[in-house]
């Protein structure tokens, strides 16, 4: 079952900006911002509290739009755009609500860790990824 999700639901992950994330130019390092997006996706894809997700990133495309200056918090807003048999694709924005600092599109592959290969998305995963 292929699903193109266009409902616009967003998963919001709030990240504290620490001084260790600031580079010598006085803004958040792009690699740090990318890691925050990965953390947001991990939270969204995790099967339950304390359980690691069983997904692997297949593609990751980042567009850094503006340097993110030091501030106390930033939001990572993630939305799912496509569900296929074994994959989920979505876009995340690092934003303060007024400005998007980065937009990152990632395709995740559901992964069977025991067999070391791709697996189909479960019905539960599909429901969790499309819920409002």
Explained architecture:
This protein has about 130 residues and is an alpha+beta fold. The protein has a single domain (about 5-130), classed as Thiol Ester Dehydrase, Chain A (Roll). Helix content is about 20%, strand content about 40%. It contains two helices and seven strands. Strands 1, 2, 3, 4, 5, 6 and 7 form a seven-stranded antiparallel sheet that branches. The longest helix is centred in the first third of the chain and has 16 residues, at about 30-45. The protein is elongated.
List keywords for this structure.
7 strands, 7-stranded antiparallel sheet, Thiol Ester Dehydrase, Chain A, 132 residues, alpha+beta, disordered N terminus, 18% helix, single chain
């Amino acid at each position: 079952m292929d699903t193109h999700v266009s409902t616009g639901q967003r998963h919001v992950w709030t990240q504290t900006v620490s001084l260790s994330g600031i580079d010598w130019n006085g803004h958040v390092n792009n690699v740090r911002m990318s890691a925050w997006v990965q953390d947001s996706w991990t939270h969204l894809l995790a099967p339950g509290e304390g359980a690691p997700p069983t997904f692997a990133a297949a593609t990751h495309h980042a567009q850094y739009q503006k340097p993110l200056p030091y501030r106390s918090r930033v939001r990572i807003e993630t939305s799912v755009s496509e569900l296929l048999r074994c994959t989920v694709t979505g876009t995340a924005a690092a934003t303060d609500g007024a400005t998007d600092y980065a937009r990152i599109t990632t395709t995740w592959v559901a992964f069977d860790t025991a067999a070391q290969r791709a697996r189909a998305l479960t019905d539960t995963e599909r429901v969790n990824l499309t819920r409002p």
